[in-house]
Amino acid sequence: MKRLPEVCFVALTLAGGMLLVAAQTADVPMQRGIAVDQPVMHNAVAIPEADKEDAVLVTLTQDGSGYLEIDRTSIAALFEEIRNALSNRNAQIVYIKADAHVPYSSVVRIMDSLRAADIQRIGLLTARDSDKPGALVTPKGLEMLIVSPR
After folding, report:
1. How far lies 131's CA from each of 42, 52, 77, in Å?
2. Helix (H) or strand (E) segment spanning residue 5
3. Could you tell me the pTM of the whole model?
4. Which position among 34, 49, 128, 136 has the lowest Cβ density within 10 Å, counted as fewest Cβ atoms?
């Protein structure tokens, strides 16, 4: 019985510590989709919209595989799949997350597919040089507008 206050104190301290850790990490979003080694951009800006559940995310991995969200797809099928994905969403932007070792031509092919699907807003997701490897961070990158030549 003499140890009961000590046991209660330790239990409360542990529970309080867990709540404090949960409160500190609750606002740190997890990046969705397939993990890749993103290229570093020194002036990348936060794009929290890319982490929302209804965001359309295309990922290119180092081995050349393409994914829409977490589903593997071919570049040829991407056009229709993106159209279908955007048909019931308010935001008409597609985020591209490519591995740093993916050839530039692969990223251009994705952008060409997006343009063919009449997508005008694209977000290129990158890492920022201040990001710690393995840390969960808000998506960052560059948003761009694709316009048709007249």
Report:
1. 10, 20, 33
2. helix 4-25
3. 0.72
4. 136
